[in-house]
Amino acid sequence: MQLIHENMNLTNCTRAVEFILVGLPPVGRMEGVMHAGIFLLYLLCLMGNGLIIVMVILDRHLQKPMYFFLSNLSCIDIGHTTAFIPKLLVNYLSANNSICFYCCITQLFFYFFFGITEFFIITLISLDRFLAICYPLRYATIMTSAVCLKLSVAAWVVVFSYVIGQVILVANLPYCSSNIINHFFCDAGPVLKIAGGDSHLIEALSFLSTIVVVMSSLLFTLISYLFIIFTILRMSSSTRQQRAFSTCASHLVVVCILYGSVFFVYLRPTMKNSSFGVIRSVSVVHTTVAPVLNPFVYTIRNNEVKEAIWKALRKKPSSFP
């Protein structure tokens, strides 16, 4: 392992320029099968989310606020999984679990950048559904294309500004005692566990900000859906009720998967002292299965998306003159 020598805090510190990732949770002799499964899930994630993005761009009937935010969510899912799955597969094929220091920091940044942005977009989808169902007459004048774009850009910019500051703090910690990360990618908890120096401030800031982002997003989503459910129950038409419930049910499934796994993995005041065996197992579901489910959950019961896909598949290529 390559080492660089630097003077840190007036003491000699030999700092590792690469880390060793422990890898996926042990599954006996099924390691190859697990990596193959993750590769297939990654391909499904790219195809499913890529299809949503392409259809929203090409089909004018899908150029509505809800589908605009869904395409944002698809971009997030693709970016979130691409931040670590290709490196995970390359390491497995090369039988080398190393990752360079700056690659690790970059992976950490993009993982949390896309991960936290997802909460904001989920919240915007909740807002969109609340306005569409509870205030249908004013919906078109409130959720204009310009407003949707501003809300989306604001979410991405705010998260970028927050995450880049946190990652810079993590990158400036000394990493002298160990270079073995007990995870299959560079996550905050395992990275801080091997960091030297005092990381209590970073952990406190990270925990508090996670509480604020996750809990405020969850609270807003739950309140929105309480109003939505009350409004649906007051509808006179059973057909309208069924259509509204069908639209909202898919969103609630995604919300349960996302918040459930995040509560378990990240809402811990002391990440350094956490046991990462079970966390790695839960992270596999959170980071590989959920991004694949999102496009299918949102579209499988959505007639507009299905009709747009079938129309695109049936469209014959124009003949050359």
Automatic annotation (TrEMBL):
One of its GO terms (molecular function) is G protein-coupled receptor activity. SMART domains: 7TM_GPCR_Srsx (SM01381). Keywords: Cell membrane, G-protein coupled receptor, Membrane, Olfaction, Receptor, Sensory transduction, Transducer, Transmembrane, Transmembrane helix. Pfam families: 7tm_4. Residues 48-298 form the G-protein coupled receptors family 1 profile domain. Coiled coil: none annotated. GO terms for cellular component: plasma membrane. This is Olfactory receptor. It comes from Pantherophis guttatus. The gene is LOC117657003.
